[in-house]
Here is the input.
Amino acid sequence: MTGPDIATNQLAALAAKSSHQSRKRSRILYSGIDGTNKSFIPSVAVDPLVHKSSIARRVRYHYPVLPPSNDQEDATNGKKKSVTLTGKILDELRDERIKVLKEGSSAASTSTSAEGQIVLHRESDFNANTNANANSRNNSVNANNVVALAGQKIQSSTTAPSPSATASASATAAPSNDNGILVKKSNTFTNVSVPTPQWHAPWQLSTVISSHLGWVRSIAFDHTNEMFATGSADRTIKIFDFARACVGANDALKITLTGHISPIRGLAFSPRHPYLFSAGEDKMVKCWDLETNQVVRHYHGHLSGVFDLKLHPTLDLLVTGGRDAVARVWDMRTRHQVHCLTGHDNAVGAILTKAADPQIITGSYDSTIKLWDLVAGKCMTTLTHHKKSVRALAQPSFENTFISGAADTLKKWQGKEGRFIKNFSGHKAVINAVAMNDDGVVVSGADNGSMNFWDYKTGHCFQKTETVAQPGSLDAENGIYAAAFDMTGTRLVTGEADKTIKIWKQGEDSSELSHPIDMSAWRKKCLAEARQRK
Here is the structure.
């Protein structure tokens, strides 16, 4: 044997010896056992009860059905026999639970569960519970957005936890539920209440009346529903027979009243007297006697144009508001000013009157709405939710609420205290007119000719349409400046910028089958608004 061969053999022997010593050191460091020698790492005593509790907790969280152990098989009874500490603990837990199930004391052990106890489902029981819980899976939702899934049952304990344990449990875990495993729900808005809108028939144009020579700025109906009056920028008031106007008769116009020298912005029929009240941008408020068709009273006091006029429903009072940023309360018999309601910073564009407090509500171009105490003549509440000028107000006859219209949105309010209820979003235009009937139909008309029809209870927009300017008019002359329902609520009259008066009615052949409610779009809108509120 040559010298290089001897050197190679010696190096191989040294490498084998070094490898053996390395494996020996590794075994010593890993197990802490050195045979006859002392260990490098002192041995740590393992408490079997603590180890059993830890394993039981992990098994309970991860295994709805305990898997069989795969260590060794006992030759005596054919069962698998575990050799590790963990395997032995699992077998003990399995045997204990099977013994409890055989004795029939499962119900008693449920209320007094030990820390080391696990829940065992046989495969047949697991499949049966899965089918039984499938029907009630959607109903098992609690306040913490936790749903129950079919599978492992979580045991409840009757002992009260400590405050620290409760805080940690609420931050990391879900409450227990006997119907199945509890998992955290995703951050969805499935718990948002989506109201079901009432079905309304769509509205369609019925009659077009071309009589005025200027923009039609105001409309008022007689309490008998026999006639209605319109005021225009041509400084005239025209009174029409309503029945004849609906069918487009040539003799629908009854009389034309002249006397104002500026556009007429407000009209109101008195329900107790044969009077018609009018207000215009010429700072004049007039009372017309419809028996003689002459002016019998003037109400002087406004310093600028008057934009709206309303009568009190039970008292002989007249309320007007205009560009001088005040609302004035008049005694219609004595022509004296009862109150001057000051507080707005811009023109008063809309007025409501009610029999109960607050008896006067004003909307202003300063984007605020004020509720007034009529007896004291002082402001009760100021609503500042709008971001644009409030140009229209309307109220229903069946509940104590009201709705306001502005360029940003329509808003529904509680009538007594002015509490905000909801937005009617979707009409992106400058809203000049809002009207409502007893069926809960709200119409909003804008200066671009768009009209939206809403369900007042839910805020659902069931129809969007656009008026058409009469032939010979400019495309820009399709704005809507006034809107009013008749006393029956079956006809809608609008005054427009193309100098026409349009009468609308509901489709006679419409039904819920021909014009169904788009619940999918309505649900998406409700969920989107809920996300914005959050």
Remarks:
- The first helix runs from residue 3 to 31.
